[in-house]
Amino acid sequence: MKKDWWKWLCVVLLTYTVIGGLLFPVPKLPILNETIRSLHFHVPMWFGMILLFLGSVIHAIKHLRTGEIKYDIYSFQLANMGIAFGVLGILTGMIWANFTWGEPWSNDPKQNASAISLLIYLAYFVLRGSIQDEQQRNRISAVFNIFAFFLMIPLLFILPRMSDSLHPGNGGNPGFNAYDLDSNLRKVFYLAVIGWTLLGYWFATIAIRLSLTKQKLEDA
């Protein structure tokens, strides 16, 4: 029970996020209006994606250093869950964009960069499936994982800032702090980031345990 405290924390935080995100008062901002509530779902999912990919990269490096199969399993499953959160982030972003920008996909630089980043990570899974030799597959995919992560950073955080973008904080647009990220939004947003990230890690740990069990049975 004591080991599962973070799971209970995840449940509490996400329950609070859903209730607070939908019912707490929000600032009446031009264009955004009530759609700013998406901030508690769309943005934290992207934070969760980045942290899951970071965990995946760390374990990929550990695998390259030690050659231990468990690190490859951790890396693979964390990347798998990162992709899931990335897809959810894009979908929630498209819903938000449809209300605020008039269409779900407007070829905004950050939208395109996000899609490219996910496609690069999808190539990671294609690569893993195309190599038969286990050791070779694990090492090559670990190297590709590191490449994909460090390519994602400029795609998401540097290039959109250098071009015209509709996203807050990009292309000369003010970030949400300047938009008035008031106390009611902050009460939910920061806890939502923790909650969604814990949920992604929770699902990843389930997949990791299953993979480790399967590996032990195959080695027996």
Q: Given the structure, what is the number of helices?
A: 7
Q: Low-confidence segments, ≥5 residues, pLDDT <50?
A: none
Largest sheet: none
Oligomer: single chain
Total number of strands? 0
Distance between the termini: 30 Å
Overall average pLDDT: 88
Gross morphology: globular
Provide the gyration radius in Å.
19 Å
The level of helicity is: over 70%
Element pattern in H and E: HHHHHHH
Range of strand content: under 5%
Structure description:
The protein has helices spanning 5-23, 42-66, 69-100, 109-130, 134-157, 176-179, 183-219. It is globular and about 60 Å long. Helix content is 74%, strand content 0%. By secondary structure, the chain is an all-alpha fold. α2 (42-66) packs antiparallel against α5, α3 packs antiparallel against α4 (109-130) and α3 runs antiparallel to α7 (183-219).
